[in-house]
């Protein structure tokens, strides 16, 4: 085992001297096979499988050789066959057991020969896969060595990329490029999509202008009663109850909400009832007149 390892190490050293030789004549005739487009995953997968198989076969061979040497039979190879008749003498039993032992020994020798052949084949497969992978590594290291050699031959080991601007040399270092950038301040962007505009209906524009010019408090816009456009039917405009105009249109009926500013604008009336409704008889009279 030690001699085989020593010969393999000496062979590798000899190949390394030829791979890293400076002159092409020294590199010629190295016997290095150039393998291109190697699927290393396939190589590693087969190599792992072959190495596992080799280890298992080696220990099987070693175990069977020791069993045969000690004339012992493992439990898995013992033949359990017995005669059908009941009258058995000790001499017959001894001869029967010796015959079964000899048969088991012959089976063990047969299995041992088969495992030795498989072990030799597996070792050759492992050796071939190792050569493929080692050839790939050698080619990679050789190409890198030749690439670096060309850098020294062409005097391009250290590259300083410079250009003249206005008679001065300016380098392209990353710090100067980053420092010369101009950063713009982010401006607020519109929430609208490109090509979209906000449009108001005519009534909304008029109401917006009235609210911006009128001195009335903003609380006057708290009424839940929507305004009617001029295109709506007259019967809806003349109805007394604001909620009736939305019947049959899918709108929920809501009572209007009035504030002080509403009362001041409407002349003190509160949906047909005056302030006197809360104080005395005038309120009742007005209520009766309405209904």
TrEMBL record:
Residues 163-182, 207-291 are annotated as: Disordered. Residues 244-257 have a biased composition (Basic and acidic residues). Keywords: Coiled coil. It comes from the Eukaryota. Residues 112-143 form a coiled coil. Residues 211-226 have a biased composition (Low complexity). This is Uncharacterized protein.
């Amino acid at each position: 085992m030690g001699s085989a390892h020593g010969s393999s190490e000496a062979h590798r050293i000899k190949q390394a001297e030829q791979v890293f030789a400076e002159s092409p004549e020294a590199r010629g005739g190295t016997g290095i096979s150039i393998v291109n487009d190697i699927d290393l995953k396939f190589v590693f997968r087969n190599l792992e499988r072959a190495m596992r198989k080799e280890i298992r076969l080696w220990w099987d061979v070693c175990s069977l050789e020791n069993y045969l040497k000690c004339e012992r039979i493992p439990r898995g190879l013992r033949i359990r066959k017995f005669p059908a008749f009941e009258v058995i003498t000790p001499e017959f039993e001894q001869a029967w057991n010796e015959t079964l032992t000899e048969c088991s020994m012959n089976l063990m020798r047969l299995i041992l020969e088969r495992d030795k052949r498989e072990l030799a084949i597996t070792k050759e497969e492992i050796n071939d896969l190792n050569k493929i992978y080692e050839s790939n590594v050698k080619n990679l290291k050789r190409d890198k060595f030749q690439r670096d050699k060309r850098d020294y031959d062409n005097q391009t080991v250290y590259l300083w990329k410079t250009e003249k601007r206005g008679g001065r040399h300016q380098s392209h270092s990353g710090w100067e490029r980053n420092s010369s950038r101009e950063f713009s301040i982010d401006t607020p962007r519109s929430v609208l999509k490109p090509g979209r505009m906000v449009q108001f209906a005519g009534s909304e524009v008029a109401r917006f202008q009235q609210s911006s010019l009128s001195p009335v408090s903003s609380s006057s816009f708290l009424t839940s009663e929507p305004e009617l456009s001029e295109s709506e039917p007259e019967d809806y405009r003349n109805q007394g109850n604001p909620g009736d105009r939305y019947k049959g249109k899918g709108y929920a009926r809501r009572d209007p909400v009035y504030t002080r500013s509403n009362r001041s604008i409407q002349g003190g009336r509160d949906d047909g009832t005056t302030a006197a409704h809360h104080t005395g008889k005038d309120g009742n009279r007005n209520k009766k007149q309405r209904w």
